[in-house]
Amino acid sequence: MPARVHAIIVARPGSSSRAQLLRTLDAVRSQTSPAEAVTLVMCGDASTLRESEAVGAVVEGIIEARATTSFAEAVELARPRVSEGSAIWLLAQDTAPHPRALERLRGTLERSPSAAIVAPKLVATDNDREIVSLGVSMTTFGRSVELAAGELDQGQHDRIDDALGSDVRGILIRGEVRDALRPDPALAGADEGLDLGVRARLGGGRLVLSPSARISAAPDGPAALPSGRSRRAYVTRLAQLHRRLAYAPAAAVPLHWLSLLPLALWRSITHLVGKRPEAVLPEWGAALTAMLRVGAVARSRSRIRAFRSSTWASIAPLRVTSSDLRRRLDDGHGSEGGAVSELRFFSGGGAWAVLAALVVSIASFTTLLAWPALGGGELLPLRQTISALWSDAAWGARGTGIGLVGPADPFAAVVAVLGSLWPSGPSFAMVLLWILALPLAVLGGWFAATRVTDRAGLRIFAGVAWALAPTFLTALVDGRPSAVLVHLLLPWLFHSAVVAHRSWGAAGSASLLLAAVVACAPSLAPALALLWVVAVGIVLGTGQFRGVGRLLWLLVPTAVLFAPLVFWQFAHGTPLALLGDPGLVWAGPQASADAAGRLALAIGFPTTDLAGWASLVPAAIAAWAPLLCAPMALLALGAAVAPRWRAGITLLVVALAGLATAFFAVGITVSFAQGAGVAIWPGAGLSLAWVGVVGAALVTLDTAITLPRLRVLSAVAAGVALGICAVPALTAFHAQRSVLTNGPESTLPAYVAAQAAGDRPLATLVMTPQNDGGLAVEVVWGASETLGSQTTMVSTAVEPQGDDVATLAVDLLSARDFDAPGELAAKGISYVLLAELPGDEGDKARTLRAAAIASIDQRAGLVHAGESDRGVLWRLEAEVAAPPTLTSAQEGSARLVLTIQLLAVFVALLLSIPTRASRRAARAQSRIVGRAPDEPMILPRHAEDRSPLDEQTPVGAIEEPQDEAALTDEALVPIAESEPVEEPAEPAEPSDPVDAPTDVDDERPDTTGERDR
């Protein structure tokens, strides 16, 4: 005799929900074997349903519940209306059974005496050939795994009838066990079907699949998982943790409970590596909630214990093993759906271009490899130990001045990273930077060009053009490390930032690069902020809201690193000082704010000597040097009318932003060197402008110039012109026109450097007579004045910072009788150095220095320690006080600032780590950003017919249908193609040997790890 069936339908109010409900009720009424009774539970206002004749004709009763009632709680409200011995059929407003669904469920229940639950095949409402759910299992650690979700229904699973669990929607529960098998409200709406299957198996029964019983299910009903990514992550993780505590042996429950927070920390890291930052907060919320719900865990364990008649060993054969899970999550190499383009760095000649640049660099700076350190210009030695390097990068006592406590410049962290690359001698890292600068520039330019063109020859042209930029070569010749680093970092920032909205991996990398660029050149912050606002606006306009979230992250590391310094400068009333150049302030040659200087900036030169031409040839000839940059300018302007004009105009906007930055920089003076004001270096703005110029020129060459020979001729002409323009700079070192010097390894006398070896905290008072009769005073800690110890707190200050030693220095040189050694020792000063002004020393400076020597020699307690090219040195005979320590409040501030900054950088690093899935996703998308639908497509020719500058796009970019969207993308740079549909996958536990899948923007969608019920 067929079992009597009582259907329970759970619904929520709303216009769309009402339509779904009426469809479901009609499907229930149309069953070939109809249910004996139907009860409707409305989670909300049910007044309109009570008045509906269509509803009344099907249901025997309507129960009105609170709007917050869960599916499990709603089912429990309807249970008293179910007659004794009746099977329960669980439905929701969005589950419309096919006509013979209940007939086949009943038949399966009758044919399987051991079946406690029968589960149907759920198919998509809008496509009944797509499987929504057919069986659920779990891993050893309780992670639920869908067995067939998202697959095309070809009958491949119709012979499977045994599963550990299923989706709760549409299941038929045998009447004899209905009291023991109730959906658990503590699961928060996830994994109820899996939990019922586990409990049925423990009670001696089993869950049987009935693939022939089909039910259409929508993804937004009361029994489905939440649609929001964060909410879904929360409920699925909470359900997993609750089941773990409910299933574990009694002795292991406390251990599981104690492991919840450490596991949350570990899984937060895996979420970030897997490009799922939106799952981090839900992870912690689920862990804390599971820890606090002791009563719910006790009730669940009690239900299991009361019904259990089998051992947990009966479940083991139905669990998903680690190897099975790995196969489900790994769709394999080559499943990208056709890669749009390959990188072809080696086969495309990029490696040879980098190697050639290395040869040119060694030829230009031949003797640098024999130098232990670089000097001249803005160059200074680095700390002798790695710990001291990173100490300079942290909030605390600064390395210049006495009693000066506060934030470090973010540039100090960049210096620390650079110095850490050569731990045995950090200063030598700067020598390597100068040697490798040209090849690194070519490498960066080449990779940046991959976002604009697929042609191998044009990528090489871009790398060479970027390395031969006049502003970059000027920075190398003049010894400006921050400017060199900015130029090396900008192409990588462009490469990652233009696709930052696509994936969290690119966003993480771009956020770190943005922080490094702004740290090296704070004057670029306004221009970069403007470009960021434009990018966010366009992404919002194209409806890529998830991409906006990734773009918002770009600013987080930069904001966190600069926040302490911003607070300091605003507190001292000098907010404009935030734009000051970091490192050593040097009054070197640069374009001024007059007409000649601004003209030099407009044609791309940061100094009026035009990248060395004014020093190499007569002025009349040097005046024509800017014409060598004209081919690049003409090619860039052509991008505005190229087929890919949207991308071209965007790149021209970048160039204008950089040029405007350079124009404003030369008119702003916020830094001081030896008391003289020094304008902001305009070369950083010109480097940003060069990004736009080179990119726009590539757009013109790639799309506007269609004749291969003309394209080759144009690129060669522009490249040769830039090569000629670079000749004075590349020969300046051998022609003695460069300020670069061999060291020194210390700016202090060798005696002091030896005493302070290992970065011992010894203080030296350095006094330098000025040509105007003034006296420059500073305190240097350690063996030398170093690049990382420089701080804009001092270089941009308009009043003394920390303890004012100026009065003490003046008194030391005067005839005033006082205990000079005692006061110096009280401030922790061990040595006094009277330095000589670099360059030509005027009469006033010489007179002051002679008087100072005579005065200090007469001071008791100051022993003349010798003279050197650094100046005259005296040593204190008094007992020197220990360096001042931080107060408890200052230590607390230092720990707080350091923790927050490290956390932000750590998160960005985890996001930027590439995974197998993210690399696969990157290959599946076009590298070109901003491709226009009307630009000409050129079919690749045979290899023997290709010329170096006429490399065509790969075949996949033209012939594969999945690339059509990329080829018709109308978004602007840095706007890319519309986002793919995302279906996140929950990661495995730390013990599961499974690669954590990334965000779907970094991999193909995966539906096996998380169920869209």
Describe the structure.
The protein is an alpha+beta fold. Helices cover 45% and strands 11% of the residues. It contains 39 helices and 23 strands. Strands 1, 2, 3, 4, 5, 6, 7, 10, 11 and 12 form a 10-stranded mixed beta sheet that branches. A 5-stranded mixed beta sheet has the order 20-19-21-23-22. A hairpin with a 5-residue loop joins strand 8 and strand 9. Helix 15 (428-449) runs antiparallel to helix 16 (456-467) and helix 20 packs antiparallel against helix 27 (645-665). Mean pLDDT is 86; it is low at 331-339 and 936-1013.
Any idea what the shape is? Answer: elongated
So how many helices? Answer: 39
Main sheet overview: 10 strands, mixed
Question: Using DSSP, what is the number of strands?
Answer: 23
Strand content: 5-15%
Estimate the helix proportion, in percent.
40-55%
Mean pLDDT: 86
Q: Label the structural class.
A: alpha+beta
CA-atom Rg in angstroms:
36 Å
Low-confidence stretches: 331-339, 936-1013
What distance separates the N and C termini? 32 Å
Please specify the SSE layout and strand pairing.
Elements: E1 5-11, H1 15-29, E2 37-43, H2 47-50, H3 53-56, E3 61-65, H4 71-78, E4 87-92, E5 95-97, H5 101-111, E6 115-124, E7 131-133, E8 136-138, E9 144-146, E10 162-163, E11 172-173, H6 192-202, E12 206-217, H7 229-247, H8 253-273, H9 280-292, H10 294-307, H11 322-329, H12 350-364, E13 374-375, H13 386-392, E14 396-397, E15 405-406, H14 410-420, H15 428-449, H16 456-467, H17 470-478, H18 481-497, H19 504-520, H20 525-541, H21 545-553, H22 555-571, H23 595-602, H24 613-616, H25 619-622, H26 630-638, H27 645-665, E16 669-673, E17 676-679, H28 683-704, H29 708-725, H30 727-731, E18 741-742, H31 750-755, E19 763-769, E20 775-781, H32 792-795, H33 806-813, H34 820-826, E21 829-835, H35 843-857, E22 862-868, E23 871-876, H36 888-912, H37 916-923, H38 956-959, H39 964-967
Parallel strand pairs: 1-2, 1-4, 2-3, 6-12, 19-21
Antiparallel strand pairs: 4-11, 5-12, 6-7, 6-11, 8-9, 10-12, 13-18, 14-15, 16-17, 19-20, 21-23, 22-23
Helix pairs in contact: 7-8, 7-9, 7-10, 8-9, 8-36, 12-15, 12-16, 13-14, 14-19, 15-16, 15-18, 16-28, 16-29, 18-19, 18-28, 19-22, 19-36, 20-21, 20-27, 22-36, 26-28, 26-29, 27-28
